[in-house]
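To whoever is on call:

I kicked off a structure prediction for a single chain this morning and the downstream step that reads the tokens threw a length-mismatch warning. I double-checked the sequence; it's 245 residues and nothing unusual in it as far as I can see. Pasting both halves so you can look.
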Amino acid sequence: MKDHFSTSPEQYAKYRPDYPQTIFDFIYPLLNEKSVAWDCGTGNGQIARELSKDFKLVEATDISKQQLEHAFIAENINYSAQPAEKTNFTDNTFDLITVAQAVHWFDFDKFNTEVKRVGKPNSIIALIGYELFNITPEIDAVINHFYKNIIGPFWLPERKHIQERYQKIPFPFRELETPEINNIKLWKYEHLIGYLNTWSAVKHFKEKNKYNPIDDIENDLKNAWGSSEIRRVIFPIIFRVGRVK
């Protein structure tokens, strides 16, 4: 598992979107019990926070200690810095294993082996992510230009798995059909800028060129945004679910 987000955990916690209730409404009826869950690659604990409302115990892991320091606190969430591919959990521990916007950084074969080891018989694994957002055609055109042409060379190769909706990631589990889900947020312009600053390609661009590439599009983006104080931001959700054993 690769760590690309330790340098901006505060921004990540503040500006990254959380996940819609529809995801959990689909998963929970599939479970035999809601005793112990593992949120792998938890980051700031967005998914762990939701799981903690229903599970007796949530184990939440990440390789970034900095991210974990900014994670949501709950009595039944146990955070630990561990790689996805090799944990200290005992065999047949978890009813549910979730990975949100992180699996594309993993060693897939080693992670899948670990999932089979620590998942209970008939447990559920859910891979969750989100694609590039949509706002309006005018805003989307500016963002797409930025995404492809300005910071495009600075995306790491693993980004392709997001664009492919995780469909080419090995998934050696009994896969279940999932609903189409859109995550809809209402954002101010400042939140959009904050979110763009969490992109790993923006960080890599800044490291090489010594300035923020968002500066190159800000006038066009402001004009496209217009006078609206708040706009609707739509994230198409990536969602793969399977039974582990």
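Update from on-call: the warning came from a stale cache, not from the record. Cleared it. Sanity check on the structure: The radius of gyration is 18 Å.
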